[in-house]
Amino acid sequence: MTGPNSTKLDVLVATQTLGPFVMRRLRIDAGEPLRYFVTMPPAPVGSRGSATSTDDAQKPAKELPESLPEIELSALLGRRLTLHHTGVLRCQACGNHTRKSYSQGHCYPCFKRLASCDLCVMAPHRCHYDKGTCRDPKWGESFCMQPHLVYLANSSGIKVGITRAGQQLGRWRDQGALQGRLLATASTRRAAGELEVQLAKEFGDRSQWRALVSSDADPIDLDVAAHRARELVPEPGEGVRYVDDETHSLSYPVAAWPPTNRLNFKKTDTVSGVLTGIKGQYLLLDSGVFNVREHTGYEVTLQVHASDTIEPVSGVPVANSASQIDLF
Hints:
This protein has helices at about 55, 110-115, 120, 135-145, 170-175, 190-205, 210, 220-230; strands spanning about 5-10, 15-20, 25-30, 35-40, 70, 80-90, 150-155, 160-165, 180-185, 240, 250, 260-265, 270-280, 280-285, 290, 300-305, 325. It is of the alpha+beta class. It folds into two domains: about 5-100 and about 255-325, no CATH class; about 150-250, no CATH class. The relative contact order is 0.23.
């Protein structure tokens, strides 16, 4: 949505350069297809040291303003985009400079200290809160010891996953899922993770990124899959209850599928290509695929070139020389 303090930046024939800003995962709004936004928090002026305590590291170095500039990428299909890494990489927790990113955008001290970076976040069935060894019990209470959901989704094929209660649509959008269906509710993250581990033997728990960005997966009857899940695990465990749900469908702004080679800043400081689509957290360019979430914390500039080279996706306008970029 365009806020009351929105400004407009005319996209003319000349290249527009935005930033520098610190990269975060794409924000996704509802729509058919979904609408994608790059949020552009300003590059902070922070120290080059490390967080000195767990409490400090659990908080951002500076509070970000409630309203940040944004650009709607899904309105720019057909434009050539150039992302340039300034060479600065910042920890998303403490804001300090770091030479290497750990756990999607953290410095090493924060990676070792924060409960949100512990192994059990990626493997919830290994939660050790009840043993009194959680890195930050308050964080564990607010995140892990809360109601969670177990779901089935179809991204590059069927998979099982978990998410916090009320976050399922955002989770499916982030994964590039074409279909999603709730399967069970759980009282804690660990309880949800234990059911997930059992069902992953049948359904898997990962998406194949190359398949995800190469085509849309064939539709799956998730009701049949949910029935199969109940047969496999008739007693889902304490605090877990199977639920009925309809299958939810999602669509993405994709005009053309890209070559399936990864684009990143490991060997180059510049990534460029015509934007042909967006799916999950992937930018689909005519030169390859760029995983935005994988580059959390990278300080970049974004150049938007005037270029109309592909046909528009139904419901998504392809930007042209008369269009505008909304800055919120």
